[in-house]
Amino acid sequence: MDTDDRAYAKQDFTSSHFIYTIGFLMIGQFVSSVGNILGLNFIKYIGIVILIVGSVTCTLDVWKKSKIKGALVRVLFSVAIYFLIV
User: How far apart are the first and last CA of the chain?
Assistant: First the structure.
C-alpha cells in the first residue's frame, strides 16, 4: 500500500459511518460473546444493546439503497439477536 491508500484507509475506518454500522456490530457481538463465556448476563445484555444500535443503523443504511435488501438485513439481524438472547 502506498501512502495515499493508507491515508484513505485510516480516514475510512475512523469515519462516523463506519463506526455506527460495522463498529457497533463488531463491538456488540464481542461484548455479548464475552458475557456468554463468563456467564455474566448484564455484560451480555449490554453487548446486545450495542448490537441492536448497530443493526438499526446498518439496516437504515441498506434500506436507502434497496428496500428488499434492507428487509432481509433486518430479518437476519433479528434472528442473530434472538439467538444471542436465548
Answer: 44
DSSP letter assigned to residue 39: T
Q: Which residue has the higher pLDDT, 31 or 12?
A: 31
Model confidence band, residue 38 (pLDDT cutoffs 50, 70, 90): very high
Q: How far apart are CA 44 and CA 34, in angstroms?
A: 7
Alpha carbon separation from 81 to 7, 25, 30 (Å, rounded)? 35, 11, 13
Provide the whole-model pTM.
0.81
**E strand residue ranges, 1-86:** none
The Cα 41–Cα 28 span in angstroms is 14
Tell me the angle at which helices 41-65 and 24-38 cross, rounded to the nearest 10 degrees.
Answer: 160
